Amino acid sequence: MKCSEFVENFSEFQDAPDDSSIKKKGEKHLLECEKCTHYSLVVVTGVRILQEIPPVELPENFWASLEHRIFHVRHGKILKDSRPISSITSFAVACAFVLLVVLFENSSIVGNLKPDVNLPAIVVSRPSMQQSRTPRSLSTILGQPSNSRFVNRFWEDINDLIYEYSTMSERYRTSPVLRQTDLVEYK
Amino acid sequence: MKKKLLDSSGSPGMTASEQRKTLCKLEDKNIVQLFLDGHEYAFAELVDRYDTRLLNFVYRTVGDLERGQDLVQETFVRVYRHAHRFDQTKKFSTWIYTIAGNLAKNELRNRSRSPLVLFQTIKKNWEADHRPLEWEDSSFKPDDLYRKRHLKALVEEAVNELPEHHRLVFVLRELEGKSYEDIAEITGCRLGTVKSRLNRARTKFASLIAPLLN
Lengths: 187, 214
Ligand SMILES: [Zn+2]
Hints:
Chain A is mainly alpha-helical. Helix content of chain A is about 65%, strand content about 0%. In chain B, helix 4 (about 40-60) packs antiparallel against helix 5, helix 8 runs antiparallel to helix 11 (about 190-214) and helix 9 (about 165-175) packs across helix 11.
């Protein structure tokens, strides 16, 4: 056995039963090797010194302090046990809430509170945003910078008007949309 | 607390000392069963059996007595709360050491993340390194008792110097006398890992204390 092998397997050698092969091999090596004998002696002596150190004592208030903590645990348990349906209760509250929301959405009673819109919906189709904005060339012709707020608003309104009162809206509409109005009437 | 729990035992017709005598004969798992059956005094017996052992184990692992006491109390609180989870086919001592060991590991992990503690450790080591060496003063002849005490303190300090994973295994083996199998269960490691960690811990320990012993 080499020294490195002995050190690598020292724990196994140290803790092995006396009649095991590793113990015998290790002991044989120790007889021949001073270095490993010293190493083994250092570990054994160090551990012995450590074991001789008197154990630390519990502080006087250890039990009282533990009792205090246990009291809180016990108290918590009692509280829990006395409210065994707490989780069921919270579930019931959640269910009731969902039910109320559904009722609010569908109920005819609740429906009476909704504003009654008399205005007929106007079907329009808006041009896409890219198409409706100020033509670059016109803005350049007018000599106004393209980011002028006035020019932008002007062309936006004109475009909308032209579009709404032309057949373009009919020709190019693909899907009907509801035109938004701010006019609502309450009963 | 002991007295209180023994008094509120719920075993009519038995004095506290009779209860203790009965309990002393029982194995840990039977005491756990008694506790689960509603006898609070059984819990006091468990605390009595393990308080000092666990305190020494945790203290050696975390190297801080006050924190050690706190963690041991936490261990008992967890036993109290989760006793029903204990697998009675296994050893109670392994279970309780596992709880304490995990708490100690968490403590070390949290500590390694705290820059304040790191600073305190560095400061402590720096102070230790710069302390005058008593042995080099020829006029100073300490008596044997003092020398021994000093040596013990240094050896104890050597344990604290071990890397935490190695230290845990080392303490469990050398001071608690646990088997490799028990250590594997307590630390949640494989047997091979336990062996290699223990071997490394011993080598490191030897390298730290060899100059002191020479
Ligand atoms: Zn050798």
